[in-house]
Input
Amino acid sequence: MKVTFNKPYMTGKELHYIADAHARRHLSGDGYYTQQCNQWMKALTGSHAALLTHSCTAALEMAAILIDIKPGDEVIMPSYTFVSTANAFVLRGGVPVFVDIRPDTLNIDESRVEAAISDKTKAIVPVHYAGVGCEMDTIVALAKQYGLAVIEDAAQAVQSTYKGQALGGMGDLGTYSFHETKNVIAGEGGALLVNNAQYTERAEIIREKGTNRSKFLRGETDKYTWVDIGSSYLPGEIIAAFLYAQFEEAEAITRRRLHIWDMYHESLKVLEEKAVLRRPIVPDECQHNAHMYYILLNTRQARDDLLSYLRGRGIHAVFHYIPLHNAPAGKQYSRYVGDMSCTITASDTILRLPIFAELEDAEVNDIVEAIYDWSSLGA
Ligand SMILES: *Cc1c(COP(=O)(O)O)cnc(C)c1O
Output
């Protein structure tokens, strides 16, 4: 058997739309396909504006500029996340302040956020891990009480909801990723969702090199000029054309992934009952998008052992997130508040199983069988 961890799914329509973008002779950003993509995301999230970017990292950087992060300003976030969540703020002189995650969802532990708030705190950045929503009601209420911005890192959470609301659509700002390891992809790509309308005009300016070019293109001003700081955060039309083909199939992609997720979940139940591993927990108020199927082993040694056992059987499982507070740059640029034991345990014991739209049922069964064989309980 040979099963890769991920295989980027192509819908078959990508090249058709790319050919069309080519024929339209508009290859820079904000043409027809970018507009189609932005509209699709607005319809999905109800956001005031959705702006395609060249990555989620870029969207997070835009968010840091939008909320005016100045040197020394603090931003509360989990340590158990991808580097860009923190780096975007560090680039502006901000200080990530990490708190521990919840043991169930591995999302930021909302009950630990208040203790991390200081007079320098500017924002809370919940990361919807594995496409499962953070406890947004509590986080939004805290932010309101202390006058903080909420920026959702919804990189993994396209098409997930919390109490029926799209992830990425609840904070002042939200960010998506369309990196090829995510559910719907553009190779490299992302988006900024603007839910608080006060940020919309400036978001357009920051994305267009600090100019009011977007207004100019809409005929709302007769010239365009340098009005603010900014950079070039928009992708070209080829990327947008590719992504639009994926958006059209997004529901089918998610349905297929959910089927695989459910297969893993059902088949591994017995191993959880026998205390060999723990399966993901999805709170009732969260509909997830099957971005990830992970298991948590009892010890780091068990995790490492199963990982190499699976590799020996041709199955490429992976683990991730060296906690940011312990990483070399984390020690230099950030601080943390409280005990970080859930973060460390997750990092030590997690194992992510292959999940992608083209993974076949038979392959899922083989992977499950391999895990049972390893546990020596038999399938
Ligand atoms: C993938 C990911 C990112 C970065 O996305 P890019 O589009 O590659 O910049 C940021 N945060 C989280 C939680 C992610 O999973």
Q: What stands out?
A: The chain has two domains: 14-248, 250-375. The longest helix spans residues 250-267.
